[in-house]
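Q: Hi! Curious about what Condensin complex subunit 1 looks like structurally. Here's the sequence.
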Amino acid sequence: MSWDFILPVCLGDLVKSGAVNQYVVQDVLSVKQLPSHINTALRSQGPLCILEYFDTAYSVLQHCRTVDVAYHIVGLSVSLPTLLLSGSLSAVDRKQQLNAVKMSVFLLCKLTETLESDSYRETIVTAPSKGRKKDKVAGKGLLQWDSERETILQCLTQLLQLDIRTLWSLSLVEEEFVSCVTCCCYKLLENPTISHVKSKSTRDAIIHVLGIMVKKYNHMLGACVKVIQLLQHFEQLASVCAAAVASWSSEYGVKAIVGEIMREIGQKSSEELAREGSGVKAFSSFLSELSTLVPETMIPNISVLLTHLEGESPSLRVAVCEVLGEVLVRVLSGDKLDDSARASRDRFLDTLQEHIHDAHSHVRARVLQVYARIVNSKALPLCKYTEVMELTVGRLGDKSVHVCKSAIQLLAAFIAHNPYSCKLSSVDLTKPLEKEMAKLKEMRDSQKEQVPVAVITAADLWDAMKPELEMTVKAQLEPGSEEEDNEDEEETGGDEERSDRDTALQIAQFLRESPEQVTPEAVSSDAPPTPQKEGGGNEGGESELKKQEMLVQYLKDTESFALQVERSIAVINNMLYWKTTTVVQEAVQFCVTAFEFSVANSVCGVRKMLPLVWSTDVTIKDSVIQAYRRLYLNPHGDNTRAKAQTLVDNLSDLMIDASLGTVQCLEEIVSEFFSSESALQTSVVQVLWERFSGKRETKALHRRAAVLLLGMAREVVLSNLDTLCSVALGEKVAEDYLLARDTLITIANITDHVRVCVHILCMNCQFGDANDSCVEEELGLVGASAEDTEVEFIRKICETELLSGNMLSAFLPLLVKVCSSPGKYSHSQLTTAACLALSQYMMISPAVCKDNIRLLFTVLEKSPLPVVRANTIVALGDLTVRFPNILEPWTPNLYARLSDESASVRLTAIMVLTQLVLKDVMKVKGQVSEVAVLLLDPEPHIASLALNFFNELSAKDNAIYNLLPDIISRLSDPERGMKEEDFNTIMKQLFSYITKERQTESLVEKLCQRFRTAKTERQWADLAVSLSLLSVCERGFKKLQECWDCYSDKLTEPGVYQPLLSIAAKLRRRAKPQFKAQVEDYEKRLTAVHTKGLENVDNEEREQQMGDTQSQNLQTPRKSRSRPKPAITFSSDEEEEDDAVMAESETPKVTTPIARTRRTRLRH
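A: Let's find out. The predicted structure is below.
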């Protein structure tokens, strides 16, 4: 064989003549000739048949889009022979096998690339084919290729695993061969479905082939470049590339490829990343995935990624932080780290800690999540707990909801995996800490009081003897005379060495002649024995002191940790009523975790989340119910009796000092438990009866809690009603009147159904003799009329008989006199009781209500007692429900109490008005601005109720939208004198409820129109700020431009100019190119009017328009039938004045023609 097969760059190069001895395709067969030639090639046997029939295979490749898929499969089956290589090959045989290998691999790879492109093209074609037969054929071919793709990869793997490098001279495989195989694999990776689960086998086969190429065929640098390119163009390949690189690193031992790719990503500048767009997300996902697979391999090169922490890409900062987190959890954790690893761990933790305050909210949230993983894995050193905990508590006030949610999750992880104690109560830790600190002080004082014993050590003895010893040695070693000394100096250098040796011998002689042997044992034996014993005692005391210091430090850290947890509870409890469902869920879970670890005040959060069982959000409701089941209804114990005892104790503690609302909410949860039939439920009922009946010694509070809990199991109480009455209402009723009261409440709650049943039975008895055919009809008609008659009868009794001519009527004048004479009757309890009694009288009769309504409002406004004012508000709320028409004119007086000086009165007022407004008893009017002011109330509970009011009101269609203009007008009134910061805060909250585009557009117009009626600069600024708080879109911006005349004369004020400029800036950031130009023109116009004034800008525009008109007049006019531009002349005297003529641009857009107006008047 005299020719060589050169792998071409493109398919067409094989038919062109090239270098000497280069193989060239001689005959490209047509489609019709292919079947016969393929059959001839099939009859030929042997692995080297490709050398003879390459032109036929090349023709199949050339016509692959027109040849049937069966030919493709045939070509695949014969294109790659299994070449068994032997060690002793002649040059001719090696050349033949090399050409056969290159031909087979080339055909296989090119055919694979072509078929892969065709299959992908078929999947994205949306137009249906003409005829069902073509669809079936195309689908069949696609399925065939899906099944053959993996077979081809297996063939390539088998070939590449053989030592085919010996076929090349010096075992140097040519780059074209490597490129041919790898390009085919990368082409297969570009398939959009390669990352799906169904493609796992194909994906693994591709990674395996590329791994062989990287390890055996020097493809590492090429693989690095190609991975970067794939990530830049195919974002979905991030996980696939990460798995491939991890496989090459771990399974094939090419660890250097991880560092090379990390360096490539680390060296990219911010400008390059900004241009790539989707590539940045792919890089981030790739790094995150890779860190989960080979974190230890990334450590040596992790420094090249740290530069991106200072870059502008938030996603890359997140990725680097996640890489650090995985390294800390998987590699740099545990107590067996060396000094270098410990230093790296601390450096990485400090880096993460810095980015808790990152500028981007997504980064802050992800860093907190990384820390949560570290804490859950117990990889955070104890010395870092306090710092990270403090930073996390600070993130609870973050403006981003996602950051707050992540902070709550991290705090819950801190509590659940804390290394200090299973009970984190600072109150319980105070006494032990004080006790141990006192003990430490005593130990330190006792150590100071001990008189140190003088102990002469060997070093001290030597220092004392040294001067005399030196003098003695010098005297003994001193030469006899100076002459002898001079003679010694004249001797050769060897004499100096000899003199040193003689000196050493003399010293040794002196030591031998010494009466005392100077040995370590002799020196140590000189020390007196008693001081040594005392010294040993001191060492033991020092070790005890160190242990005590460590114990005190541990208790201090525990107390500090508990205090930070308690500080976070106060913040998280307020998050239970946020609008964001996920935050509420995390807050509920945190309260549960804190309660389980006995954190102080954690029960407050548990109680505060209880009303959420009435939430309209099913997710929140289920979270609260599951939380209470976990805390109270799934107790721990050795047996059923112990579990029941624990459950009752928990519920009783919750019932003590609980409000009526808390009891009602708890009933919703507990009643569901009692409805289930279980051994635990039976034991709980038994324990409750034992507590209530006093069979076991129980506190009075727990007995009352037991009867209230029994009331939640109606069926149980109904069957034991006699026992309930005999215990609580029997002879011992005087011992505990509160128990009797709670028992009556329980009986009243469970007898509603009984009363209804009795009423139904009576009705059935009354109409029992009626005809069977008319029973249902008679019951319906008579029942309805009887109900109306009964209501009318009750109303008549209330109005005419209850308060006239009986004992009750005699008290009414007295009540009126006490309430109307506060100076004479000044006792607080008397005044309180009189006002409550008068309000009850007014509830009965509308006539009494009309006569005394003014008196009651006078008491509300002028009473010096907050409790009287608060009670009066509650009474007036009930009267509003009872007689809405009578109370309607007094609505402003009710809203006025929202600004009462007493916090309790404001609290009562907001609660009453919330109920009246949300239940549609009272219409929402402009006075609701007083509720908006309470958003900034110094009392957090009042502020939260005001926030809840607007949250609920926003659920009503257009309620807040309709009220906003009036609220703005009232709050910006100069007489109110509200601070600018307070106004901005309130408006920011209210405008957050405006989410519809039409509402925004309408509000833009309304607020712009109010500029005309606003009189002060502060009112202008408030209106401008309100406009800037709206999410203005393109339609809203057009309205803003149309209303230019409303606010253009006020743009010289910075308070008006800056907010409007911020609107344009926000629009420009997200605007399309055409709309962006309009926004920029608007910005220029705003700036021009602000700097020069409206009149100067208008004059410049007018002059420019006049100049344009004159330039147009210089042109040759065309003949046109259109009428000339209108000019309005006011009088004949002004015809010669330029200002008397208005240009078309100055003419008002909306005009009223004079002639038409006159005709209209004549018609009238």
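A: A fun detail: The chain has a mean pLDDT of 76.
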